[in-house]
Design brief:
The chain folds into two domains: 70 residues, no CATH class; 202 residues, no CATH class. It has 15 helices and six strands. The radius of gyration is 21 Å and the shape is globular. This is Lysine-N-methylase.
Length: 345
């Protein structure tokens, strides 16, 4: 089996107690059956502590929503007492993600982790492969469609990496490639035929974010504050363009091939472009001056979108039906945001 990942995947290391936004806080932590069976047999006082801290297959969070095994030093007591190989699967894998396509497995590290976010925004995007033992596939799919999606994804990666193109041109190409691919599939897909003025569409993006289920209580006030500062006329920051291109490749790598299971190519490409439009505006509003600032904002955005299934479903649906996110509207935002004549597209 081929295991394909971004090159930075191998360099990820959990920063444990140095993490400012621990994944052991604020998340429900499910325990897989194999690990639960092991925990049930652990002896001594630590075994008793384990079993008393589990209910209905999950760890019982403390009043301030911390994992009961996250100690004051920001370290995991299970890890220190039993070893890293005794963590439940979600704790062992996070922030790594995986997808299986027959004889191909793809994986990476998720943007919602601050250590992973630093890697994603600071490293040029490139893929590498290695041979690994066969694993169970996710399900049946059309191999011809998979090959077409791989080719379309390579075109998109090339457009995002081509610095001779303006960022606006690169992102418009992303949308064009996805639209062409969607038409090739010959499957009906939602896309509003209406067009919203660029400033209205940009505000609609922030309104949509404010309507999603918040993961962190600070998110909605933050988005409301940023929404009040929106302006399509504010100048782009050329220093953040490489970061945005790398983030675009992250979103495309992580999501586009999932269309082999449901045919939804365009909505996933729209999500990548929508995300870059929002992140660019947040970078400007916050006056981002270095990689760490960009990584922190991207991490918070990822946490509120990618890491809530309901929020992702709502985003993909609204990107298909709302006039603010039609292809013409998104291209209008890009022209207004990064400069250019809308008639070119």
């Amino acid at each position: 089996m081929i295991f394909r990942t971004p090159t930075y995947y191998r360099d990820f290391r959990c920063i444990a107690g140095n993490c400012r936004d621990s994944c052991c806080k604020g998340w429900e932590i499910d325990i897989d059956k194999e690990t639960a069976a092991y925990y049930a047999g652990v002896g001594g006082s630590f075994g008793e502590r384990l079993r008393s801290s589990i209910r209905d297959g999950s760890f019982l969070l403390t009043a301030d929503e911390r994992c009961p095994f996250l100690n004051k030093s920001g370290l995991c007591d299970i890890y220190t007492e039993l070893g890293g190989d005794k963590l439940c699967r979600i704790c062992s894998d996070h922030p790594r993600y995986f997808e299986w396509f027959g004889s191909v497995k793809e994986g990476g590290v998720g943007l919602c982790c601050e250590a992973a976010a630093e890697l994603i925004v600071s490293r040029p995007f490139a893929l590498c492969e290695e041979e690994v033992p066969d694993e169970t596939a996710s399900g049946e799919y059309d191999e011809e469609l998979f090959s077409m999606l791989i080719a379309a994804r390579e075109e998109i990666f090339a457009a995002l990496a081509d610095e001779e193109l303006s960022l606006r041109e690169s992102l418009c190409r992303v949308l064009d490639i996805a639209e062409k691919m969607q038409l090739c599939i010959d499957m009906p897909f939602p896309d509003s035929e209406e067009e919203a003025p660029a400033e209205e569409a940009l505000r609609g993006a922030f309104d949509l974010l404010s309507e999603l289920e918040p993961i962190d209580e600070k998110w909605q006030p933050y988005i409301a504050e940023c929404s009040a500062k929106l302006s399509c006329s504010s100048a782009p920051n050329s220093g953040t363009e490489p970061v945005l291109r790398r983030l675009g490749s992250y979103f495309i790598f992580r999501y586009l091939l999932k269309a082999v299971f449901d045919g939804e190519v365009l909505s996933r490409a729209k999500f990548a472009v929508f995300s870059l439009i929002v992140l660019d505006r947040l970078f400007r509003i916050q006056g981002c001056s270095d990689i760490s600032d960009c990584a922190d904002i991207a991490k918070n955005y990822s946490k509120e979108t990618e890491y809530c299934e309901e929020n992702m479903e709502e985003l993909l649906y609204r990107l298909g039906v709302d006039k603010e996110f039609s292809l013409r509207s998104l291209k209008g935002i890009l022209a207004c945001t990064f400069g250019g004549n809308m008639d070119e597209f």
